[in-house]
Design brief:
With 229 residues, the chain is mainly alpha-helical. It has one domain: Phosphatidic acid phosphatase type 2/haloperoxidase (Vanadium-containing Chloroperoxidase, domain 1, Up-down Bundle), CATH 1.20.144.10. Helices cover 68% and strands 0% of the residues. It is built from 10 helices and no strands. Helix 3 runs antiparallel to helix 5. The N and C termini lie far apart (82 Å). The N terminus and C terminus are likely disordered.
Length: 229
């Protein structure tokens, strides 16, 4: 019935429909989902980014620096998307749904009444996802699932309209894809330069690590060499 109060706007009607689900769930589950929407899913995106970095620095054949540079761009694109979204929200100045419809939404947690379009959380999680898709489908797919779940949760929590989420996705995708060539042109040489510094372990795993892991797996780990020999 809440959707009938949405003045025929499908965006608002969908907001009421999704947020209305929270009224039928136990309070502890609402609180848990609210925590996921505010903190849990974005932190999970960062965890996937960290796993992708761990995978990238172990790329064989000298490909680690370029792969790590791509992971760097996924993180930087997420940060840049958030910065660009500050300008978008200032330009659009769309009130939060709980401001426009006071008392008609079930808010899962207190939230500031700043601009609603576009969603920072949607922008961040999708920028990470798109950036990872450029280098690894598995990590990228996990990122996309997290971003989709985050978008649902932000509407479920009553803090964003569905179009706020779509706007965040669009901003994130455009930022990640359009600026990727320039970013990689700068980051790949930077990552290669790091391999010649003390920061090399952050960019490329030691060459002997794969061989050592193979020996461990076979049950015949080599004894440590005498460095004085």
């Amino acid at each position: 019935m809440q959707a009938l109060l949405a003045d025929g706007n499908p965006d608002t009607a969908l907001l009421f429909d999704i947020n209305g689900i929270s009224r039928h769930l136990p309070g502890f589950l609402d609180s848990f989902l609210g925590f996921l929407g505010e903190y849990g899913v974005p932190l999970s995106s960062l965890a996937v980014l960290a796993l992708a970095w761990r995978w990238a620095r172990r790329r064989p054949g000298g490909g680690a620096p370029a792969a790590v540079a791509a992971v760097m761009w996924a993180g930087l694109a997420a940060g840049l998307g958030l910065v660009l979204n500050v300008a978008v929200r200032a330009l659009v100045q769309r009130p939060r749904p709980f401001v426009t419809y006071p008392g008609r939404l079930h808010l899962l947690m207190d939230h500031s009444a700043n601009g609603s379009f576009a969603s920072d959380h949607a922008t961040f999680t999708m920028a990470v996802a798109v950036g990872l898709l450029l280098i690894n489908r598995r990590f990228g797919a996990i990122g996309v699932v997290l971003a989709a779940f985050e978008g649902f949760l932000r509407v479920f929590m009553g803090v964003h309209y569905p179009t706020d989420i779509l706007g965040g996705y669009a901003l994130a995708t455009a930022t990640s894809l359009l600026l990727a060539p320039l970013a990689m042109a700068l980051l790949v040489p930077f990552a290669h330069a790091l391999t010649r510094t003390a920061a090399r372990p952050l960019v490329a795993a030691r060459a002997e690590e794969p061989r050592r892991r193979a020996h461990v797996a076979a049950g015949r780990e080599e004894p440590p060499r005498d460095l004085a020999a």
